[in-house]
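P.,

For your records, the input lines for the assembly:
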Amino acid sequence: MATVDHQCERHPTDGHAHSGVSPGGRVCPVHSPKAEESKRAHKGLGRHRDYIKISVPEGKTIRLPMEWWKTFLAFFYAAFNLVLTTVMITVVHERVPAKETSPPLPDKFFDYIDRVKWAFTVTEVNGMVLVGIWCTQMVFHRYRSIVGRRFFFLMGTLYMYRCVTMYITTLPVPGMHMTCAPKLYGDSQAKLQRVLQLISGAGLSITGSHMMCGDFLYSGHTVMLTLTYLFIKEYSPRSFWWYHLLCWLMAATGVVCILVAHEHYSVDVVVAYFITSRLFYWYHTMANVQAVKCSPSSYLTHTWWNPIFNFLERNVQNQVPCSFCWPVTWPPACLKNPCKNYSMVQSVREE
Amino acid sequence: MKKAGQWSKEQVSLWLAEEGMQEYVEPLQQADGQALLRLSQADFQKPPLSRISPDSGKQLLEKIKTLNIEHHIEAHKNGFANGHVVISHEGDAGASSKTKRNGLVNGFHKELVRIPIPEPAGPQFPTEWGKTGVAFLYAICCFVFTSIMISIVHERVPPKEATPPLPDKFFDLFDRVEWAFSVCEINGMILVILWIIQWSLMKHKSIVGRRFLFIVGTLYLYRCITMYITTLPVPGMHFKCSPKLYGDWESQMRRGMKMLAGGGLTITGSHNLCGDYLYSGHTVMLTLTYLFMKEYSPRRFWCYHWGCGLLCAVGIFCILLAHDHYTIDVVIAYFITTRLFWWYHTMANQPDLKRPSRTNFISRVWWYRFFQYLEQNVKDVVPRSYQMPISWRSLQSGHVKYSRIDSD
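Structure tokens returned:
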């Protein structure tokens, strides 16, 4: 009997420590699971001494805690960056040189392909459809809090980078067709109104809120198209190749139509695609490959957002599996008959 | 094997040889099994044994004692005398079926126990200069391509009167300083020279050289693309761009080659072509040499790291101060250089990431195959070890080559 108890005491900690250990054998200081879980197992044993705990090997349990509060923080981060972007667009708008004094820059794509008027509408429709599909997919995903967190963080960071690039150097308008709203020299009230109008219309021409110029490097439309496509592809079953192909076509068409409409320079689109895809791959490699998070020879942790990443992904130990479920369980819990309270079983389960 | 007591003289000699006591074979030629067993300390005091034996026969007597024990055990026919299981030996199928030896297994029953020694799977950091050569060619191609591209783009730069310099936040805050660009270029040259010296002193210079050449080549290739697709106007009215050569391909080629020969530096007089603004090549070289120098030098050389970091930072600041590039050019160049450097080195140092898999997003870059070709035989993190580029020993003539020691 004594030996059995001794073994029980040892196993929970072994089981818990195992998942936090990096392949090198060291325990990763940032990402080891909480010690409280092992303490709780010990407390349970203490109260019911007549129970013999049969230690079942942990196996590969999936540790993906929901942690909705982190998702909300990421959402606020994204919202903040979106607002910052709109403010920045308003500021930059004042500095755009007039198209008469600064004609559009020479662009290779514009040399080959002339402007098509309705192309930008195609882009925006594609963008709205992709965002709608992605939101639906995210809502039905079982681990929507984790996936949502990642999406908001990446979107926020990309828009923040965009603020920086837009602000430091202002490119002239890409085509003489662009009608920019008149400049408001120092009129803060009107500027604020513009900001609100831009936010409410999500910056789309269709809603009539895309009348400010200067936000060319880099293209926000490309960012949204690319990012939603990458997320849709990543978090859907692999066998849905037709679904992936369709979304890819929509994204690609949308991006090409931005250029066909002469709404952005080619370099804006290329840089936007590059930054979006690299950031997505970087983040997901760090999240999925355990060795990369902790190893000292991993340079992926040298980015400035590494502490934020650690905060968001600290307790996500495995790759998020692709599984879907109804967002709302039916029937609601209050209508169910409460189970009879089996006191002994219930209290053990609470541990 | 028969019992020791029944050995013939030949068998005694054979046994002595097997035990590594060949020196006793001659004096004990005439001894048979019984005589051997009867040898005592006294025999070793007299010649001829006293002459031969260095330890007055202690070792031989021990072995004879062991034989004696076996002899007695055999005589008493005790199955598991010492608790040892009876072992039947390989070569003696016929003879040993009846007489099984018990107890200590000694001497003649050669049980070969194979101790597997892990063989090192080849050198951990093979030099493979061929691959470095390929990377060198790649870098050269990218440089030539860049020069040609600058030459082409120069034709498309709008004249500064028609398209004034774009509004830039840094230019609003800081006015132009004339000598700043020379500072930048001098810093760049110092950093490149220091890096070349450091590289030549490295032990694994082929691997590190390969990495540097690949990364530099790729960055310049990306630069070609961004330069070409959209042409930014000159950042300042102080620029003197060479006149355009409309359609004169030969002169354009020559111009491109002149730029390549001068390294694209103003100091050498080869920086008179405009249009190569997005993104800044000077920033790329400064940042990349600094990153490599920091990465492949010992950790404790913090002075050296700080010095190089300062050179790099001052150089970049001076580019902007001289109004030679827009701020966006410098920021994008810094971003792409650092990301590519970290990306490459993470892939090279983590064996998990060298295999494409579903979770390995990092392997989805277009240059992944080339990377695998360059790095597949590098098994581990390249250590920061140094050696003289030319070893003194190879310079000395008549030097005897010790094959085992020298093949390092």
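Two observations worth noting. The longest helix of chain A spans residues 68-93. Chain A touches chain B through 47 residues (CB under 8 Å).

Regards
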